[in-house]
Amino acid sequence: MTAPAVKPEGEPLERPSGVETGQTPSGNHFFAKLGPGLITGASDDDPSGIATYSQVGAQFGYGLLWTMLLSYPLMAAIQEICARIGRVTGCGLAANLRKNYPKPVLYFVLIAMTAANVFNLGADIGAMGASLALIVPANAMLLTVTFGLISLLAVLFIPYSTYAKYLKWLTFSLFTYVGVIFFVHIPWATVLRATVIPQVAFKKEFLMALIAVLGTTISPYLFFWQACRKSKR
Questions:
Q1: Domain ranges, residue 135
Q2: Bridge partners for 12 per DSSP
Q3: What is the pLDDT of residues 188-199, one digit of tens each?
Q4: How does pLDDT run across 7-49, given as a tens digit for each residue?
Q5: How many domains are contained in the chain?
Q6: Distance from C-alpha of 52 to C-alpha of 58, rounded to nearest angstrom
Q7: Which residues of 114-138 are buried (b: 16+ CB within 10 A; e: fewer)?
């Protein structure tokens, strides 16, 4: 007889419901399990990120495309590390910090992450209000406050499991990036040159844009969310 697989903690691994030993998960089961990771990965393309990339593109054109070659591998590696931590230990990053490090380290990380998340959340809601103000004749500040109230009410009164099932379908909106290629003229030679040949200017505006691009691409909330979603699967 073959011994059952066990987690590092000694607890038996749970098999997905409806999947027996030796069977391949069905397509429906695959898409059902795809949700949490897909939503977490897509969440990195948040409103503040879109606003940042738009402003950087408007100011510097293709000049910062080379950052994609630097930031994408870092983002993918961090998501992979966090997902593996959650999958192997069955705990999120905060729980692992509490188990393996002194409390001051845990408190410092949580306080720093909370502060970063507050600023990130403010930037997200502000970008949503400013974006809607471009197509709706309304005050951007009023729209921002409205989005904030709607988000707060949703968090307080709507269980995550209720609307999470719809979020994964909204990730299809990311294909609009691909669609843009067919509707605008793109100087591919310029794009390729800007992607592989870094253009660096030691100016305040350029350095701020560089920090903004890297910061919004590798967001702190992404680490904790990815680990938590994997630990609950």
A1: 60-164+187-231
A2: 6
A3: 899 999 999 888
A4: 444 444 444 444 444 455 555 666 666 666 677 677 777 888 8
A5: 1
A6: 10
A7: eeeeeebeebbbbbbbebebeeeee
Decide: helix, strand or coil at residue 12.
Answer: strand
Query: Closest Cα to residue 191, out of 202, 205, 180, 201?
Result: 180
Confidence (pLDDT) at 10:
45
In a domain, 15, yes or no: no
| pLDDT beneath 50: ranges in the chain | 1-22
Report the C-alpha gap between 183 and 49 in whole angstroms.
22
- Is 194 inside any structural domain? yes
Which residue carries 């000049």 as its tokens?
63
Assigned domain for 95 exists:
yes
Question: Which structure tokens are listed for 8?
Answer: 């590092």
Could you tell me how far CA 179 lies from the centroid of its own chain?
A: 21
Which tokens hold the place of 41?
A: 């990965």
The SS3 assignment for 159 reads coil
Give residue 16's region: left, alpha or beta (phi > 0; psi -120 to 50).
Answer: beta
pTM higher than 0.85: no
92: in domain: yes
